[in-house]
């Protein structure tokens, strides 16, 4: 029994030894600190205070060393923050980022709502959160070369996030560098980034607009390509329009123009009642020919000089869109005529109102940028209007407008085509029906549509209520047509447009 007790005591003593040793060490440390005088303690505090200074000195030395390496051993290219190449490089880096990234920038993505729940999509709280890697320097391998991409973080914190139109990609100056005496590898890398970005956007149309300060063109929206067969108007006119644009964009056409000292420009006027697809046709043409679309809002332009600057910065191969051109100077012209009728007194009395309605730039300023001495060449100009007769003859003369395209109310044939597009068996909404049965329903549907009476947008609004079933669409179209015809004949309602062709 005695031996067992001694063995248990020895085991307990072994378990208590680590605690006892720890307490002993702490006592020894406290004893030694208590023996230090005030001079020794001050020295230790002074040494500790030099650590931040030493760290800053080490950072400064590393920065100077990096500067020397960059100056003598690196070839580099700097890309401004507002250049499209900047966005291309950042997109490539984000697509090839390492998976272990731990630093992100979080933003509310206003362009993406909750999918699947239409009611939830309307709530502000349902907007998705966009997380983008937050970085200032990125090392990467490409084409057998080591590259370093540095990002100006000061630009990022100062203005990138404060711009509501910014999606967090680009907008900060970038410097792309590689080891060596030649910048050719850097140029090849930037070219590859641009090709990558173009492949990503080949199924989209990029719409540009002036930024909120009116200083530069910025991407406003990215819309999926829209097929030309989704814009319903006369098929013969559509083929003629597409053929004319294709011929204009042919490089041989440009050489013919230049060899004959002819300005290389092309202008189109799309006119017709509201809702007939003038803007949609512009987007569809941009997608058909792989062109970017630049949107010019005349009322928001401050001066003729600013309008000229906008057109000077437009690239040569693109579409410039001027929507509702008839409404730009309409109010101002009406007020001017009224003042001339009422005399000088009426002009003085209404001076403030007229100044508020007058546009900032003039018609002569617009005419000058369209085909003046310093106007740009190589672009396609598209103007849209609901009232072509109200346009100044100088604006639509040949040379400024080379082709006029009328988009009117929908025909029965176009209504049938729209039905087939909405309820194609490939979309899955009519799984029980084959194509032959859908075509028969389309014939019944088109027979209910009066010829040249409804706009395509109005008919599309009907389809939005019956996207789940083509049978319901056919059974409901008769009542819907009757209701819409009663609306148009009711004198209590104001007609939006004249049904006669201009």
Keywords:
17 helices, 3 domains, four-stranded antiparallel sheet, 13 strands, alpha/beta, disordered C terminus, 49% helix, elongated, 502 residues
What report would you give on this structure?
The protein has 17 helices and 13 strands. It has helices at residues 2-35, 38-73, 84-95, 118-121, 153-160, 184-200, 235-249, 251-259, 278-288, 304-312, 330-349, 351-357, 363-371, 412-422, 435-447, 456-464, 470-489, and strands at 74-79, 104-109, 128-133, 137-142, 145-151, 174-179, 204-210, 217-224, 266-271, 293-295, 319-322, 380-385, 403-406. The model is unreliable at 1-5, 112-122, 331-341, 343-357 and 491-502 (pLDDT under 50). The N and C termini lie far apart (120 Å). The chain is of the alpha/beta class and 502 residues long. The strands form three sheets. The protein has a seven-stranded mixed sheet with strand order 8-7-10-11-12-9-13, covered by helices on one side. Helix 3 crosses helix 6 (184-200), helix 14 (412-422) runs antiparallel to helix 15 (435-447) and helix 15 packs parallel to helix 17 (470-489). A hairpin with a 2-residue loop joins strand 4 and strand 5 (145-151). The chain folds into three domains: 59-200, no CATH class; 222-406, Rossmann fold; 412-489, no CATH class. It comes from Sodiomyces alkalinus (strain CBS 110278 / VKM F-3762 / F11) (Alkaliphilic filamentous fungus). It catalyses: ATP + H2O = ADP + phosphate + H(+). Residues 336-358 are annotated as: Disordered. One of its GO terms (molecular function) is ATP hydrolysis activity. It is found in: Mitochondrion inner membrane.
């Amino acid at each position: 029994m005695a031996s067992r007790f001694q063995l248990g005591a020895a085991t307990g003593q072994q378990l208590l030894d680590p605690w006892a040793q720890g307490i002993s060490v702490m006592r020894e440390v406290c004893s030694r600190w208590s023996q230090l005088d005030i001079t020794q303690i001050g020295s230790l505090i002074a040494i500790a205070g030099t650590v931040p200074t030493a760290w800053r000195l080490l950072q400064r030395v590393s920065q100077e060393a990096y500067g020397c390496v960059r100056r003598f051993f690196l070839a580099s290219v700097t890309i401004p923050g507002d250049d499209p190449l900047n966005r291309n490089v950042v997109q490539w880096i984000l697509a090839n980022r390492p998976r272990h990234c731990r630093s992100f920038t979080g933003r509310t993505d206003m362009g993406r709502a909750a999918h699947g729940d239409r009611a939830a999509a309307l709530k502000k709280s349902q907007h998705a959160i966009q997380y983008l890697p937050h970085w200032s320097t990125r090392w990467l391998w490409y084409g057998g070369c080591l590259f370093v991409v540095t990002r100006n973080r000061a630009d990022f914190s100062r203005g990138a996030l404060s711009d509501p139109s910014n999606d967090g990609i680009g907008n900060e100056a970038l410097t792309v560098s590689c080891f060596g005496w030649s910048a050719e590898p850097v140029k090849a890398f930037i070219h590859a980034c641009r090709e990558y970005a173009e492949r990503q956007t080949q199924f989209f149309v990029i719409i540009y607009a002036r930024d909120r300060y009116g200083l530069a063109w910025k991407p406003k929206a990215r819309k999926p390509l829209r097929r030309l067969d989704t814009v319903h108007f006369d098929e013969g006119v559509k083929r003629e329009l597409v053929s004319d644009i294709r011929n204009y964009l042919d490089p041989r056409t440009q050489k013919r123009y230049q060899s004959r000292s002819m300005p290389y420009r092309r202008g189109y006027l799309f006119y017709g009642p509201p809702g007939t697809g003038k803007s949609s046709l512009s987007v569809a043409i941009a997608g058909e020919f792989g062109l970017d679309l630049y949107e010019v809002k005349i009322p928001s332009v401050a001066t003729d000089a600013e309008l000229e600057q906008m057109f000077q910065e437009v690239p040569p191969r693109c579409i410039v869109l001027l929507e509702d051109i008839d409404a730009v100077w309409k109010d101002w012209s009406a007020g001017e005529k009224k003042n001339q009728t009422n005399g000088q007194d009426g002009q003085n009395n209404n001076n403030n109102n007229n100044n508020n309605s007058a546009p900032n730039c003039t018609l002569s300023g617009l005419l000058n940028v369209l085909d003046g001495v310093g106007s740009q060449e190589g672009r396609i100009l598209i103007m849209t209007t609901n009232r072509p007769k109200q346009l100044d003859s100088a604006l639509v003369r040949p040379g400024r407008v080379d082709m006029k395209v009328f988009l009117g109310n929908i025909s029965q044939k176009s209504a049938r085509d729209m039905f087939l597009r909405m309820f194609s068996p490939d979309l899955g909404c009519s799984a029980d029906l084959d194509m032959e049965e859908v075509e028969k329903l389309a014939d019944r549907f088109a027979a209910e549509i009066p010829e040249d009476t409804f706009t395509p947008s109005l008919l599309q609004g009907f389809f939005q209520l019956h996207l789940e079933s083509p049978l319901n669409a056919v059974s409901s179209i008769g009542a819907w047509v009757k209701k819409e015809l009663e609306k148009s004949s009711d004198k209590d309602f104001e007609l939006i447009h004249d049904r006669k062709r201009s």
